[in-house]
């Protein structure tokens, strides 16, 4: 739900950006009824959109990283697949520059692979298992959005506030929002898929005919899961 809230917050921010451009254009054109009060009003709306976006992002990141950590612990208990990165990177990879361009996808890929109900009992190498097209598409949208925001920051530093720069900002906001919505929808599907696998009972309908390893308990997603002898 919080991922979808972030998508809605981005849509609100994009509407606010285009609204600012529209009011500024009317003001410069000297249209009646559009004065400094209207300019201040759209500035307040844009600021409100910024705060709504920030609050939604902080809340969703906190909940998502909590889910990701538990999913990682669960996946380790469910199969013998060796994750390519240690547990600490499950959180740290998102905040470490440069590596945050590919480590998070690697972490999600390994969790997805290790959580699959059809993983062979004695399989250890994550690289040899099939990758998730959903994870791949989700991360592609995230990285492209990173690039769009980076280009926007560079251009914003070198230009004055004009009607053209306001329009450029609205265009960048539109592109970024489209990417955020695409990434958000894909992420929701990935979360539901992994959670569904991890919440399935032992020998349940989502497992394969051989079922999970007898020495491993199918962990509850809200408890982390532990090995049982």
TrEMBL record:
Pfam name, any one: DUF4328
Ranges for domain DUF4328: 37-195
Protein's recorded name: DUF4328 domain-containing protein
Transmembrane annotation, as ranges: 49-69, 85-103, 170-188
Keywords for this protein: Membrane, Transmembrane, Transmembrane helix
Record's compositionally biased regions (Basic and acidic residues): 215-229
Organism: Actinophytocola xanthii
Location of region: Disordered: 201-229
């Amino acid at each position: 739900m919080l991922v979808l809230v972030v998508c809605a917050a981005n849509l609100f921010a994009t509407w606010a950006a285009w609204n600012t451009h529209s009011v500024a254009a009317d003001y410069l054109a000297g249209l009646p009824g559009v004065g400094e009060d209207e300019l201040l009003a759209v500035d307040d709306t844009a600021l409100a959109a910024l705060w709504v976006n920030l609050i939604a992002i902080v809340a969703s990141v906190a909940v998502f990283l909590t889910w990701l950590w538990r999913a990682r612990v669960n996946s380790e208990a469910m199969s013998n697949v060796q994750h390519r990165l240690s547990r600490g990177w499950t959180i740290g990879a998102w905040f470490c520059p440069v590596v945050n361009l590919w480590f998070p996808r690697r972490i999600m890929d390994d969790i997805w692979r290790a959580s699959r109900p059809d993983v062979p009992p004695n399989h250890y190498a994550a690289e040899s298992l099939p990758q998730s097209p959903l994870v791949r598409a989700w991360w592609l949208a995230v990285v492209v959005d990173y690039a769009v925001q980076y280009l926007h920051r560079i251009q914003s530093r070198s230009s004055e506030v004009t009607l053209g720069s306001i329009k450029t900002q609205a265009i960048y906001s539109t592109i970024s929002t489209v990417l955020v919505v695409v990434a958000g929808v894909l992420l929701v599907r990935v979360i539901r898929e992994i959670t569904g696998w991890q919440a399935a009972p032992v020998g349940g309908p989502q497992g394969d005919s051989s079922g999970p390893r007898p020495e491993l308990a199918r962990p509850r997603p809200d408890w982390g899961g532990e090995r049982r002898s």
